[in-house]
Design goal:
The chain is of the alpha+beta class. The chain is built from 5 helices and 6 strands, in the order αααββββββαα. The chain has a 6-stranded antiparallel β-sheet with strand order 1-2-3-4-6-5. It is globular, with a radius of gyration of 14 Å.
């Protein structure tokens, strides 16, 4: 679904118009996020750019290792990555709805405290996914994702 809003337009609307991979690295402080930003330019977003999730908006969303990796940014420049996976009752997520779990990618093992704004946005994101549920079929659970080899990205 394309609403005519480009990734560049969304960044500009969020006050991040000149954000580059290097800029995202400075904002997020994570080389993985900068690499994802650089590669996302060539990969169409699965969710509409600009879709709001609380105080944050979707900058880009692509499948990665069986999950949907969603890059979100706030108007103040704060950014983070959320993972949307198939629901697994054995795994505790920040938000669960309609068979989906949402996690904040913070390099933790489930015991790392989540930034409160990121957590609230993750909860809003799972609610905002309802109309896009059809595009999210075939996602893996977090446990299935973690068991996959890391060799492939932007998988089916």
């Amino acid at each position: 679904m394309n609403n005519g809003l480009t990734r560049r337009d969304a960044l500009r609307n969020l006050g991040l118009g000149s954000l580059t991979a290097a800029g995202l690295l400075a904002v997020v402080g994570d080389a993985t996020a900068a690499d994802a930003a650089a590669s996302s330019v060539a990969t169409p977003s699965v969710l509409p750019v600009g879709l709001t999730a609380g105080a944050y908006s979707v900058v880009h969303a692509a499948r990665s290792h069986g999950a949907l990796r969603v890059e979100l940014a706030a108007p103040d420049g704060d950014a983070f990555v959320a993972l949307v996976c198939a629901h697994d009752p054995a795994t505790r997520s920040l938000a669960t709805r309609d068979g989906l779990d949402v996690f904040v990618e913070n390099q933790g093992q489930g015991d790392t405290p989540t930034n409160e704004r990121h957590g609230l946005s993750a909860m809003a994101l799972v609610a905002a996914l309802g109309p896009h549920r059809g595009e999210l079929s075939g996602l893996s659970t977090l446990a299935e994702r973690q068991a996959q080899p890391e060799a492939t990205d932007n998988d089916k």
